[in-house]
Amino acid sequence: MPDYQAPLRDLRFVMDEMFDFPGHYASLPGGDDASPDVVAAILEEGARFSREVLLPLNQSGDQEGCLLEGGDVKAPKGFKQAYQQYVEGGWPSLSAEPEFGGQGLPHSLGMVLSEMICATNLAWGMYPGLSHGAADALRHHGSDEQKATYLTKLVEGVWTGTMCLTEPHCGTDLGLLKTRAIPTDDGGYDITGTKIFISAGEHDLAENIVHLVLAKLPDAPEGSKGISLFVVPKFLPDADGNPGERNGVTCGSLEHKMGIHGNATCVMNFDAAKGYLVGAPNKGLACMFTMMNVARIGVGIQGLGVTEASFQNALAYARDRLQMRALSGPQAPEKVADPIIVHPDVRRMLLTQKAFAEGGRMLVLYTAQMVDVVEHGQDAAERERAETLLGLLTPIVKAFLTEVGFEATNEGVQVFGGHGFIQEWGMEQLVRDARITRLYEGTTGIQALDLLGRKVLMSQGETLKVFTKEIHKFCQAEADNPALAEFIKPLAKLNAEWGELTMGVGMKAMQDREEVGAASVDYLMYSGYVTLAYLWARAAKQATEALEGDERAFYQAKLDTARFYYQRLLPRTRAHAAMVQAGGGSLMAISAEDFGLGFEI
Ligand SMILES: Cc1cc2nc3c(=O)[nH]c(=O)nc-3n(C[C@H](O)[C@H](O)[C@H](O)COP(=O)(O)OP(=O)(O)OC[C@H]3O[C@@H](n4cnc5c(N)ncnc54)[C@H](O)[C@@H]3O)c2cc1C
């Protein structure tokens, strides 16, 4: 069975040494509660819970899957008990607002725990994971009554949440949705329609499920401007706020899917189900975006979690598995062969995983600080800056970390050779589980359009400049530091190139809008590599300064990994830049009718 140790030392490096989280927490209102001791205790307990409770259920959950019986869905064995422990441990309320029963700790702390949960049991993690987004949407857009009725239950974790957007004919293009909301005399709405692919849509972990559903009012404008958001509980709360009458929402079937088998992906039928409007009529998409932004970063963290899990197991295997001798001669002459970790190509795979896991952790925590500032920052200018950066980085966190997460889990299989393909080692499960992260919450293609189109070009590049200026300042400050020259020189060059590439696409897009779509995914990947290069340079600076201390091996490895990232992964920017610049001509030339096959499909 795969093992997992929460990367507590690396978390300390990133949180305390790179980003001064103790200072950051102290600057937030109520941040005193997140004292270093409390943070350390929470992380250790989270590490224990994920390793001892969630990890043992990961493979069994994958093999067993969920079961639909008479409309009820049973999660795999042990999932319910693990969820009870999670609720009893107070985990759901960790970073929720005290006025709704939360502990008021910073959001970033919840995000760190999320990584551990995703690393040990991605499928299980989606049951509580969606509740955070639902709670956030209600907190921002719900009425006082809705907050009192639903939010406190979601925060306690006794009820879970879902997000119901997708329908059979519409996923990306929600303007096409058909689910209807008809006003009723009691001020509510009858919701009728079918939603598909609803994660945790039905299950036996919690006593009630709060669906947040997108639907159209009878007089709604066409397209995405006519979408409203409704809260639709599985059981209608009674006068005391407890689950009462069963609502008209049921699970029609469960999807059979490639991965995350332990999570129930449901077809949900709404049959004149009682719903209540959240926010203003026809403004549902904006309300849902509150939920989707939280969820997008959450999916990026899923990419990070599976990367770390795959890396740790591949590393252990590579130390143990004996095959062939090192090219330079036996490294373990007393054994029948050398462990495969001596082979450069195996090291290439392990270091790719390590560089993405540790770099991804830096990116998540860097972004997590912005989430805290946006929510609780005291200074308006700081909040605005954090909001801008968060907007820019969210599609990068979501799409880049899931793209490289999929690559990293695949490399994990490769390190195991044929054994990686065999179920019992758990490495192929990580690939299957990772695959969905590139799809849901907006595919990589859609994140890329969001980044290049909405965030960068629509702001005339101003959003990007906020970030590139920060990188520029860092490069300037370290320009005369010989220990960092190998990082700062290429970083400064790439940072300048990032702006030039953006201008180039922007100019082309003025002639032909399709150029944005043609460049977008390569632009996103380029942006991801440069973002990680900035963070790896900062890590290298930190490591260089600590090299002479007691933990030389840790810091030396950090520096070596930074070097690997710069020498072996960052050159991928050359290909992405070339593809961004190539334009859309070759993509659009072939006719859509037969795609040059000579026959129609
Ligand atoms: C396991 C699982 C769990 C899910 N959980 C949920 C959930 O809890 N709630 C929920 O509402 N949904 C959920 N989804 C749905 C998921 O979010 C959608 O599948 C996803 O958004 C893509 O929509 P689609 O499948 O309809 O693909 P489509 O929208 O049909 O897209 C197909 C392809 O076309 C591309 N494409 C589409 N439009 C454009 C464009 N304008 N430019 C460039 N490329 C484009 C896409 O990138 C994609 O590659 C889940 C899906 C799965 C498989």
What does this structure look like?
The chain is an alpha+beta fold and 601 residues long. It has a domain at 460-584. The chain is built from 19 helices and 11 strands. The strands form 3 sheets. Strands 3, 4, 5, 6, 7, 10 and 11 form a 7-stranded mixed beta sheet that branches. A two-stranded antiparallel ribbon has the order 1-2. Strands 8-9 form a two-stranded antiparallel sheet. The longest helix is centred in the middle third of the chain and has 37 residues, at 284-320. It is globular. The mean pLDDT is 96. Flavin-adenine dinucleotide is lined by residues 163-166, 171-172, 197-199, 257, 265, 436, 439-443, 445-446, 449, 517. Residues 163-166, 171-172, 197-199, 257, 265, 436, 439-443, 445-446, 449, 517 line the site of flavin-adenine dinucleotide (FAD).
In DSSP terms (H or I, runs of 4 or more residues), the helix count works out at 19
Nearest-integer average pLDDT = 96
Present as ligands are: flavin-adenine dinucleotide
Order of helices and strands: HHHHEEHHHHEEEEEEEEEHHHHHHHHHHH
Shape from CA axes?
globular
Strand content: 5-15%
- What is the radius of gyration computed over CA atoms, rounded to a whole number of angstroms? 24 Å
Q: Gap between N and C termini, in Å?
A: 45 Å
Sketch the major β-sheet: 7 strands, mixed
- The beta-strand count equals 11
**What fraction, in percent, of the residue positions are helical?**
55-70%
Low-pLDDT residue spans: none
Backbone structural class: alpha+beta
